Every structure is written in structure tokens, then in C-alpha cells.
TrEMBL record:
<dbReference type="GO" id="GO:0046475">
    <property type="term" value="P:glycerophospholipid catabolic process"/>
</dbReference>
<dbReference type="InterPro" id="IPR051578">
    <property type="entry name" value="GDPD"/>
</dbReference>
<dbReference type="GO" id="GO:0008081">
    <property type="term" value="F:phosphoric diester hydrolase activity"/>
</dbReference>
<protein>
    <submittedName>
        <fullName>Uncharacterized protein</fullName>
    </submittedName>
</protein>
<dbReference type="InterPro" id="IPR030395">
    <property type="entry name" value="GP_PDE_dom"/>
</dbReference>
<dbReference type="Pfam" id="PF03009">
    <property type="entry name" value="GDPD"/>
</dbReference>
<dbReference type="InterPro" id="IPR017946">
    <property type="entry name" value="PLC-like_Pdiesterase_TIM-brl"/>
</dbReference>
<keyword id="KW-0378">Hydrolase</keyword>
Length: 261
């Protein structure tokens, strides 16, 4: 028999990740036109922006619709949440033909209110987003939360210069008293040690998404080992058991060309 199917972005998937050993789970939030905050990765469902449909319409189009507030209150209280505010840039509105975006402040405030009013427990919640202004507003209305800036660090990709380099991301975090940066492995894989030291030297944390699929297990082992050895603060992975096994088996680190080229 194969592994049981557990749909992503559901209460069951987060509970399962915790049982496998994950300390945190990450989730992307969007909001429907009638103000329901849902966990959903993309901007659109069948080419319709999430914020342009009611929750009932969203439910009819998504196989496993998940309401953020329900998961927040029902998940094991030992599971910590890394919450991404999913909000399109001007460039993404144009390139993906989204037409418009939801009201940013209303969306963020709704999320913050849900978290503040959550049922008991000691769950930690952090916030991150690719949209800088979302993070600025979170800092304004809920400064006690840890807040991280997502960046791809790709030059000239976005109209907003804050999104176009690791250096800009660092500056943005420092100017707004944020706690750190979230990026993917490809952004810093070249000169990984130097990039990590640069971020840490400014008193910021650095987390990595492992977006890439690896053709060989040895490649996966090498990548996780490399980033653990250069001092990355956290990694976001899909294969939790394998990642934990790799981390457990790291006994020493050598900074050679494989780690810094």
C-alpha cells in the first residue's frame, strides 16, 4: 500500500507535518470578497482572483477549501504558524490579468484580528509577505509579532525596487524593524556563506524555501547540509522525514568551494 493521500493546505496536512517532526508549518492566506480568510497558495481559482468570489463560490471551485480561522483554532496548539500574506504586486496584477487587488489594509487587519482572537494555547505565529507594504502595516498595528520579508532577489524583475535584491531586502528590514528575510535556495546558493553572514551581521534571521526538486537524493543531502553548515536559521521543506534525517546525520562542516562558489 502507498502513503495515504493528505491534501495540502488543510488541517490534516498541518497535523501530519507536526507528527512527522515539523516545528512550524507555513501557509499562504488570501481573502474572499465577503471577507473570509482562506488558506490558498495561488492568486486565482480557475482564472478568477480569490478576492473576486464569495466564500461559497470559492468552496464550489476548490476541492479542499480551508478557512484560516478554523485551522488556527483547531490545530494542535504546539504547531507554530508561519503565515504568508498573499498579495499581488502591480507587476503580477498586469502579468496575470488579475484586474485589481483586495484592499490591503482591510485584508491585513482581518488576519491580525483573527490571530489576536484565537482560542487558548501558546502557538507562535509569524508573518511574512512578498508585499512590503503589507509588512509595514502589520508592524504598525501589531508590532509584537515577528515579521519577515519574502524576496526572490532578482534584479529589475519588479517595479518596486525593494523586491529586486537581497541588499534591498536587508535595507527594508532594517528601516522597518523587521526580524529577517525569507528567500529560496537559488537566490543565495552562489556565495551562500557570504550571503548568510551579510544578513546575520545586520541582526536579521534568514529562512530558506526548498522550491527546487532534486533528481537525486544525494543532491538533496548536499543542499540541506550546505545551508545548515553556513548557518541558515530555518528551512521550509516538503519531505520532512528526509530533511530531519539529513540534519541529524551532519557531524561536521567544511567551508570549501562547494559551499561558497
Amino acid at each position: 500500500m502507498g502513503k495515504p493521500f493528505i491534501p495540502e493546505n488543510t488541517l490534516q496536512s498541518y497535523q501530519h507535518a507536526y507528527k512527522l517532526g515539523a516545528k512550524w508549518v507555513d501557509m499562504d492566506l488570501s481573502i474572499t470578497s465577503d471577507g473570509v480568510v482562506v488558506i490558498y497558495h495561488d492568486f486565482t481559482v480557475k482564472n478568477i482572483p480569490v478576492w473576486n468570489m464569495t466564500f461559497n463560490q470559492f468552496k464550489s471551485k476548490v476541492k479542499f477549501p480551508t478557512v484560516f480561522e478554523a485551522v488556527l483554532n483547531e490545530a494542535d496548539q504546539h504547531i507554530n504558524f508561519a503565515v504568508e500574506i498573499k498579495y499581488p504586486s502591480i507587476d503580477e496584477i498586469k502579468s496575470e490579468n488579475l484586474g485589481s487587488a483586495p484592499n490591503l489594509k482591510d485584508f491585513v487587519k482581518k488576519v491580525i484580528d483573527i490571530v489576536k482572537n484565537k482560542k487558548g494555547g501558546n502557538r507562535e505565529v509569524t508573518f511574512n509577505s512578498f508585499e512590503p507594504d503589507a509588512l509595514v502595516y502589520i508592524k504598525k498595528i501589531a508590532p509584537h509579532f515577528n515579521i519577515f520579508f519574502d524576496t526572490e532577489g532578482l534584479p529589475n524583475k519588479f517595479t518596486d525596487p525593494r523586491r529586486n535584491s537581497l541588499e534591498e531586502a536587508i535595507q527594508f528590514c532594517l528601516e522597518n524593524d523587521l526580524q529577517g528575510i525569507v528567500t529560496d535556495t537559488e537566490t543565495i546558493t552562489s556565495n551562500a556563506l557570504q550571503h548568510t553572514m551579510t544578513v546575520h551581521s545586520q541582526g536579521l534571521g534568514l529562512m530558506l524555501y526548498f522550491y527546487r526538486s532534486f533528481s537525486k537524493k544525494t543532491d538533496y543531502v548536499e543542499e540541506i547540509t550546505k545551508f545548515d553548515c553556513v548557518g541558515i536559521d530555518a528551512i521550509v521543506v516538503e519531505d520532512i522525514p528526509m530533511a530531519l534525517k539529513i540534519l541529524k546525520n551532519i557531524t561536521s562542516c567544511t567551508y570549501n568551494d562547494n559551499y561558497t562558489e
